[in-house]
Amino acid sequence: MFERILVPLDGSPLAECVLPHAVALSRAFDAEMTLLRVLERSQATERAQSTDLLGWHIHKAEAESYLDSLVTRLSGMLSGVNWEIMEGRAAERITEFARDRDIDLIILSSHGRSGLSGWNISGVVQKIILRACMPIMIVRAYQSIKYDWDGLRYRRLMVPLDCSKRAECVLPLATKLARFHESEFLLAHVVCLPDMPRPVPLSQEEIALAEKVVRHNQKAARQCFKQLQDRLPIPAQIRLEVGDSAVAMLHDLVEQEKVDLVLLSAHGYSGGNRWPYGSVALNFIAYGTTPLLIVQDLSEGELESTQAEMAARQHKGH
């Protein structure tokens, strides 16, 4: 579960959209909360003379005052709230801090000081997500819904599952959160039509074969979810769909069911350890429109290093 929650902030109102969610999760898990501000020095500042350095120290003092005011307000709602300031590149410092302090969850706003853009998440958030091997929550800064910091309650949670044990790693925290908030709890699964690429329309025999596979997978999924319902500590509603695209239908379900929060494992049945996220998790990161909490089912040591990471380590050693 979550004992230490990290909330990176850049001083912008957009970034502060995470605070109601941070309070809601800190209460549910009785977790400590750390607000982190990373002050980035430009190349010009690094070459600056004393007059510019004075401005830098003023900027740092303003950041400290900002964080102090937030902690004062949050301390009226929670215990165990603190702040930290670091200097450097935001994505690198945030992931470094999270690893060094044994953070259990990072809560990120999709956008911050640089403003909203056509991208669903900012470049800094993308870097953190890809390099921080731990649970991540993304709050969509462009959502029009605003909450009081201590007034957020999740009415409806959805957990996409594919009947694999890896996908189920999210269930302990999802059920605890649902119980705390008295949320409706949805388990969703999509039985995909089998891929049968042909240069011509399928024959009747091939269509019958595809339908047989779908019926078989539906039966297996119903059995799987019935067993899940029996052993879960809270009531769960099942949404079992059939379609061409699992991800597209899951997005449709989120919209149709008016889901407040989607929780899922970083990998499912087909996931390996080559990449930090499977296709469904990546799609929800890139195209989801509701708050998203992803539990990383792999440890940092289990993930394969990318060529870029290996090249960066080699370059650093020279």
Helix count? 10
Average predicted confidence as pLDDT: 91
Order of helices and strands: EHEHHEHEHEEHEHEHEHEH
Please tally the β strands and state the result.
10
Helical amount: 40-55%
| Proportion in β-strands | 15-25%
Q: Strand order, biggest sheet?
A: 3-2-1-4-5-10-9-6-7-8
Q: Let me know the CATH homologous superfamily of the largest domain.
A: HUPs
- The Cα radius of gyration reads 22 Å
Low-confidence stretches: none
Question: Would you give an account of this structure?
Answer:
The protein folds into 2 domains: 1-152, 3-Layer(aba) Sandwich (Rossmann fold); 154-318, Rossmann fold (3-Layer(aba) Sandwich). It contains 10 helices and 10 strands. It has helices spanning 19-29, 43-46, 50-75, 90-100, 123-131, 171-181, 204-231, 246-256, 279-287, 307-316; strands at residues 4-9, 32-39, 81-87, 105-109, 136-139, 156-160, 184-192, 237-243, 261-265, 292-295. The two termini are 40 Å apart. The mean pLDDT is 91.
Features:
Rossmann fold, alpha/beta, 318 residues, 19% strand, 41% helix, 10-stranded mixed β-sheet
Question: What topology does this entry show?
Answer:
Blueprint: E1 4-9, H1 19-29, E2 32-39, H2 43-46, H3 50-75, E3 81-87, H4 90-100, E4 105-109, H5 123-131, E5 136-139, E6 156-160, H6 171-181, E7 184-192, H7 204-231, E8 237-243, H8 246-256, E9 261-265, H9 279-287, E10 292-295, H10 307-316
Parallel strand pairs: 1-2, 1-4, 2-3, 4-5, 6-7, 6-9, 7-8, 9-10
Antiparallel strand pairs: 5-10
Task: Sum this structure up briefly.
The chain has helices at residues 19-29, 43-46, 50-75, 90-100, 123-131, 171-181, 204-231, 246-256, 279-287, 307-316, and strands spanning 4-9, 32-39, 81-87, 105-109, 136-139, 156-160, 184-192, 237-243, 261-265, 292-295. It has 318 residues and is an alpha/beta fold. It has two domains: 1-152, HUPs (Rossmann fold, 3-Layer(aba) Sandwich), CATH 3.40.50; 154-318, Rossmann fold (3-Layer(aba) Sandwich), CATH 3.40.50.620.
